[in-house]
From TrEMBL:
<dbReference type="InterPro" id="IPR006311">
    <property type="entry name" value="TAT_signal"/>
</dbReference>
<dbReference type="InterPro" id="IPR036291">
    <property type="entry name" value="NAD(P)-bd_dom_sf"/>
</dbReference>
<feature type="domain" description="Gfo/Idh/MocA-like oxidoreductase N-terminal">
    <location>
        <begin position="40"/>
        <end position="157"/>
    </location>
</feature>
<protein>
    <recommendedName>
        <fullName>Inositol 2-dehydrogenase</fullName>
    </recommendedName>
</protein>
<dbReference type="InterPro" id="IPR043906">
    <property type="entry name" value="Gfo/Idh/MocA_OxRdtase_bact_C"/>
</dbReference>
<dbReference type="Pfam" id="PF01408">
    <property type="entry name" value="GFO_IDH_MocA"/>
</dbReference>
<dbReference type="Pfam" id="PF19051">
    <property type="entry name" value="GFO_IDH_MocA_C2"/>
</dbReference>
<dbReference type="GO" id="GO:0000166">
    <property type="term" value="F:nucleotide binding"/>
</dbReference>
<dbReference type="InterPro" id="IPR050463">
    <property type="entry name" value="Gfo/Idh/MocA_oxidrdct_glycsds"/>
</dbReference>
<dbReference type="InterPro" id="IPR000683">
    <property type="entry name" value="Gfo/Idh/MocA-like_OxRdtase_N"/>
</dbReference>
<feature type="domain" description="Gfo/Idh/MocA-like oxidoreductase bacterial type C-terminal">
    <location>
        <begin position="204"/>
        <end position="288"/>
    </location>
</feature>
């Protein structure tokens, strides 16, 4: 296939965005077609999970550019891909590269997902972005809308979606094997990073290798501290989305896809150790989301428990529902009128039906979902065949899943029950929650154009 055939979306989409005014529009160009119709990638955030995302890109195409705010990390990856141009600011990278790339990977901390992805998508770039898709609900809605408007191939990094076991689980839930479902319980051993702590008061100098202004991106200004970068940004309200944001796009994924856990009616924090100083997410929390009738499915509740060992034992209501099965550190339990679905695999890739005796003779429903060649491969195939639906965790799905997940984060931050109006993206009972549904952006890093 000619590169022009599978990459026409880049051409149609054109370029928009204030930071790009005056830049050359991305148009179909035969002259710089790269050899072998390889997808040309730019990778944003190349350490941590970005290390494997970048290497996945390298296996599937050509790495044209690498971007990381940490020069040590950037140089390490650049040694592997010596032909790639290096950047520490993704805005500059995208502006300069224009039509020299077809696709981006975004593996930065959560607060930068949407700004980097939206800029690339407005330029018509196919986008792979880590989970949760975004930091705020509004951002998830915008990325989902952009993907549809520009007909881009997208995939969120909840890789369990590609497992055969995951797809079997979705098929089984869709087929109604458990009867009407009333409640779901999900628990996790996260956070395994600091939460429930105060902001550090010491102000060490910014290391020479770290571009702190670019790390902050859309977030409020604050002095550099080693307690944020790398990895531990997760626990901080302004950067991360806490244990819920970190894990739920994996752990509720099979239930969300199988049972349409979208556009909740309400969410409330049943109990929590509490947010500390408006700075860090709680040490532990229990959050209940209520879903109404969905295309003929019975209303149900989803109760989320985080905190690992720090969650008090007497608060683990799910333990009584396990039919004598061992309770694991993390798990998903879907309770139906006929039986239950129990997965101790964080990605929903394995499950057992309970009670075991009752389901001994159970026959799997017929496969209705295609089996995947791999999560990243599936996305690249979507690009090459111009079929965005081939990537199962495309932003149409992943955006809705992320909204469900982030609604719990809104309830935590707002401190009240949220009666949710999904269509208008607002808390019907608490206008003050609006500040947690969207964010103020630092100049130069807005998702709005
Ligand atoms: N799918 C999975 O199983 C999985 C596993 C781990 C992390 N993640 C996700 O991956 C993302 C990154 O998490 P992590 O654990 O790798 O974090 P990390 O802090 O270890 O790594 C993030 C990388 O991005 C770089 N970075 C930070 N801000 C940047 C910016 N503005 N521009 C360019 N580079 C920037 C950092 O220097 C670092 O190299 C998160 O969204 C996280 O939820 C997914």
């Amino acid at each position: 296939m000619k590169r022009r055939d599978f990459l026409t979306t880049s051409a149609i989409a054109g370029v928009s965005g204030s930071f790009l005014r005056g830049a050359a529009p991305a148009v179909a160009r035969a002259a710089d077609e790269s050899p072998n119709s390889k997808v040309r990638f730019a990778c944003i955030g190349v350490g941590g999970k970005g290390d494997s995302d970048t290497n996945d890109a390298g296996k599937h195409g050509e790495i044209v550019a690498l971007c990381d705010i940490d020069e040590k990390t950037l140089d390490k990856m650049a040694a592997k891909y010596p032909n790639a141009k290096k950047y520490f600011d993704y805005r500059k990278m995208l502006e300069e590269l224009g039509d020299k790339i077809d696709a981006v990977t975004v593996s930065t901390p959560d607060h930068s997902h949407a700004v980097a992805s939206a800029m690339a998508m407005r330029m018509g770039k196919h986008t792979f972005c880590q989970k949760p898709l975004t930091w705020s609900i509004e951002e998830a809605r915008i990325l989902r809308t952009l993907a549809a408007e520009k007909n881009l191939c997208t995939q969120m990094g909840n890789q369990g979606t590609a497992d055969d076991g995951f797809r079997e689980g979705v098929e089984l839930l869709k087929a109604g094997a458990l009867g009407p479902i009333k409640e779901i319980h999900v628990w996790t051993n996260r956070p395994i990073w600091p939460q429930g702590v105060k902001r550090p008061t010491d102000t060490p100098g910014i290391p020479n290798n770290v571009h702190w202004y670019e790390f902050l991106g859309p977030a409020h200004d604050r002095p550099y501290h080693g307690g944020y970068h790398p990895f531990n940004w997760r626990g901080w309200l302004d950067f991360g989305t806490g244990a819920l944001g970190d894990m739920a796009c994996h752990t509720i994924n099979v239930a969300a896809m199988g049972l349409e856990l979208f556009d909740a009616e309400s969410v409330e924090v049943l109990d929590t150790s509490g947010i500390v100083d408006r700075e860090t997410y709680p040490t532990w929390s229990i959050i209940k989301t209520q879903f109404g009738e969905r295309n003929g499915r019975a209303p149900l509740s989803l109760t989320w428990y985080d905190g690992g060992d720090k969650l008090p034992e007497e608060k683990r209501a799910y333990k009584k529902l396990l039919h004598g099965e061992k309770s694991s550190g993390s798990g998903l339990l879907i309770v139906g009128e006929k039986g239950s679905f129990y997965s101790v695999n964080d990605y929903g890739a394995e499950h057992v039906l309970l009670p075991r005796d009752k389901y001994k003779e159970f026959k799997k429903p017929e496969a209705t979902l295609p089996r995947s060649p791999g999560h990243f491969t599936e996305w690249v195939e979507a690009i090459k065949t111009k079929d965005p639906k081939k990537a199962l965790s495309n932003f149409e799905y992943a955006g809705r899943l992320t909204e469900t997940v982030l609604l719990g984060v809104v309830a935590l931050k707002a401190g009240t029950k949220i009666e949710w109006d999904a269509k208008d993206m607002r808390a019907k009972n608490n206008s003050a929650a609006d500040q947690y549904i969207r964010r103020d952006y630092r100049k130069g890093f807005s998702i709005h154009v």
